[in-house]
């Protein structure tokens, strides 16, 4: 039996377009002789639909679109479509009103539903907010082959693989007990660095352990902060990968289930990515491209400083929306270095993007003049420095308003962590492209990019000391430890939840650790006001980061027992 994997890129809530994509894939699959077509989790509405699910008319429209799609599909093809279904028991049991489901469509009708059993409610996932878990493992028979159906998280409870159990049930084990011949998983699994290795290792373990061939179908595309990498794949019952689809692109691939051998046959296995930098690059390009297109923009704008952050964002933007659709604006102030302009222009030329120069000296004088009565007798300080950043932010938004650009902000994760960025200044923007990319990774991505044949990022941008250039001679390391040290402290704090003692025990200077932790705590208010940032790590600021703003935890040392003495009131 030929089975087609449709790795689709839905637009959330665009039901007609998503149904059309499924229909086109189905027609191609049928023409290639497929008997079954697999589509990703919630393929009809896109993942994650979030609070659209609270709207009954949205849920009704999903159901109506599904019924219509069933009629339109080629009759000889069975198709699994991700959808939502009402929970008829909700009013009795007090449960959630919906299931996250897969519908089996064939010969003009919806034949069967399968409900997701394990509902992720951690990091960026919030499925318990909407869904009731399905209670039983389920399968369908097609040409005498019994096919078990699971949905994304249903795979992620392999107790032996993880060395722990996250949920009471393992849907894969239940399907194995039912004696199915093949297990399919329909996913919407967002990209994070190296996650594909984890998925493949986890499924290898499950298919080997249960001696079942498995097909994993993933969504592709950017949806707000989340980037879905696709990379759908299939394994035979020995746990060998027999097929791997494209990363970061839509794809339609075929696998063949051999009824006699009860196994999947070898098919085309695209190579895995050679480096983390390469996969992150593709992820960010897809994230920017899809955010721009899905929000109905065609062109983007950003401030080009001659620094490395804006250089990387410009390169990603040019790859994502086309060089002719990127405008880089150079806004020198009296404190800008000579090389700020020459490096930014060299970058603009390498990329072939448009550039404009708007000096901001006069605007700074205007601010100085207006504020003079109020600021009289005070020292030049952060307030004056930030005015430059805010003038630039204003100019960029004015151009964006006038000509319909999307403004890309350029802050990296290290800066966002410690608040080394200006609210309503360089933080202005609709999408924060590298907000989850630590500064050390910004460098390695730029080096990787330059190693791909032509020099894109001018050497001087790679080698000069990073600087905000908001006062004479300023460099980032006046205010921050060297970036390799900063990033290691941040990685331990943010990703590994280490205490102050653990971070210090790893060899960091205690005073530096204290200072950085305080900066991280105090910058929470900025992160809450930042544009959505593209997620590429397992712990990004944004929807999966839920920290209080008015809090004193990190500021009093992130340690247990806390270092304070109780003072009893008399
Ligand atoms: N908890 C809280 N809730 C709400 N608001 C809070 C707040 N705490 C402070 N604030 C407000 O926020 C203000 C401080 O934040 P903000 O105005 O952003 O300014 P601030 O963080 O003081 O300064 C910006 C920093 O970013 C650095 N930097 C680095 C790289 C590039 C750029 C650039 O702009 O190009 C800047 C710059 O050198 C400086 O150290 C306070 O004056 C206060 O009004
Ligand atoms: N002279 C400038 N002209 C245009 N935009 C600027 C200028 N200075 C700063 N910006 C904008 O503000 C952002 C923040 O500056 P920041 O110094 O943090 O980053 P960078 O200059 O790109 O990199 P680096 O920090 O490594 O020097 C820049 O990325 C850019 O978008
Ligand atoms: N949609 C889902 O169930 C996603 C959860 C899953 N653990 C993943 O990221 O792959």
Please describe what this structure looks like.
The protein has 570 residues and is an alpha/beta fold. It has two domains: 2-272, Nitrilase/N-carbamoyl-D-aminoacid amidohydrolase, CATH 3.60.110.10; 300-344 and 389-557, Rossmann fold (3-Layer(aba) Sandwich), CATH 3.40.50. Helix content is 37%, strand content 18%. It contains 18 helices and 20 strands. The strands form four sheets. A seven-stranded mixed β-sheet has the order 5-4-3-2-1-14-15. A six-stranded mixed β-sheet has the order 6-7-8-9-12-13, with helices on one face. The protein has a five-stranded parallel β-sheet with strand order 18-17-16-19-20, with helices on both faces. Helix 1 runs parallel beside helix 2 (56-72) and helix 10 packs across helix 11. The longest helix is centred in the C-terminal third of the chain and has 22 residues, at 382-403. The chain is globular, with a radius of gyration of 26 Å. The protein starts with a strand and ends in a 42-residue tail after the last helix. The site of nicotinic acid adenine dinucleotide (DND) has 16 residues, from helix 11.
């Amino acid at each position: 039996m030929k089975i087609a994997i449709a790795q689709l890129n839905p637009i959330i809530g665009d039901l007609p377009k998503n149904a059309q994509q499924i229909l086109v894939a189905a027609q191609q699959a049928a023409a290639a002789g497929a008997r079954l077509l697999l589509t990703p989790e919630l393929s009809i509405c896109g993942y994650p639909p979030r609070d659209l699910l609270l709207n009954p008319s949205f849920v009704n429209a999903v159901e109506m679109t599904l019924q219509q799609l069933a009629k339109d599909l080629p009759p000889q093809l069975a198709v699994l479509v991700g959808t939502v279904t009402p929970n008829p028991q909700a009013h009795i049991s007090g449960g959630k009103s919906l299931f996250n489901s897969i519908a089996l469509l064939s010969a003009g009708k919806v034949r069967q539903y399968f409900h997701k059993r394990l509902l992720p409610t951690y990091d960026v996932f919030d499925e318990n907010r909407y869904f009731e878990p399905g209670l039983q493992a389920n399968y369908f028979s097609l040409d005498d082959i019994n096919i078990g159906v699971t949905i994304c998280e249903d795979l992620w409870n392999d107790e032996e693989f993880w060395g722990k159990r996250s949920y009471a049930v393992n849907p894969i084990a239940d399907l194995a007990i039912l004696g199915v011949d093949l297990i399919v998983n329909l996913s919407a699994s967002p990209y994070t660095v190296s996650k594909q290795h984890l998925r493949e290792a986890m499924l290898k373990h499950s298919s080997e352990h249960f001696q079942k061939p498995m097909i994993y179908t993933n969504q592709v595309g950017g949806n707000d902060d989340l980037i879905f990498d696709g990379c759908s794949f299939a394994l035979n019952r020995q746990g060998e990968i027999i097929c791997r689809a494209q990363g970061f692109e839509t794809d339609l691939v075929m696998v063949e289930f051999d009824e006699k051998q009860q196994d999947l046959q070898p098919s085309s296995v695209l190579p895995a990515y050679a480096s983390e930098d390469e996969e992150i690059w593709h992820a960010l390009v897809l994230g920017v491209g899809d955010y721009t297109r899905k929000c109905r923009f065609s062109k983007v704008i950003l401030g080009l400083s001659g620094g490395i952050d804006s250089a990387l964002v410009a390169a990603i933007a040019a790859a994502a929306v086309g060089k002719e659709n990127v405008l880089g604006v150079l806004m020198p102030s009296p404190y800008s270095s000579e090389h700020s302009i020459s490096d930014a222009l060299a970058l603009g030329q390498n990329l072939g993007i448009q550039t404009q120069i708007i000096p901001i000296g006069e605007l700074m004088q205007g601010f100085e003049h207006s504020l003079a009565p109020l600021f009289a007798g005070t020292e030049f300080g952060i307030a004056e420095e930030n005015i430059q950043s805010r003038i630039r932010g204003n100019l960029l938004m004015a151009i964006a308003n006038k000509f319909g650009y999307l403004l890309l902000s350029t802050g990296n994760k290290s800066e966002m962590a410690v608040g080394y960025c200006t609210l309503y200044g360089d933080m202005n923007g609709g999408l924060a492209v590298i907000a989850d990319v630590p500064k050390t990774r910004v460098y390695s991505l730029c080096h990787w990019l330059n190693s791909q044949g032509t020099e894109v990022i001018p050497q001087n941008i790679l080698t000069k000391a990073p600087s905000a250039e908001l006062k004479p001679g300023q460099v980032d390391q006046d205010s921050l430890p060297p970036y390799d040290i900063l990033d290691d402290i941040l990685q331990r704090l943010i990703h590994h939840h280490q205490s102050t003692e653990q971070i210090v025990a790893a060899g960091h200077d205690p005073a530096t650790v204290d200072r950085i932790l305080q900066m991280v705590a105090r910058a929470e208010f900025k992160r809450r006001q930042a544009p959505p940032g593209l997620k590429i790590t397992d712990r990004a600021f944004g929807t999966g980061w839920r920290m209080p703003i008015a809090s004193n935890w990190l500021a009093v040392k992130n340690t247990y027992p806390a270092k304070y003495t109780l003072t009893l009131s008399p």
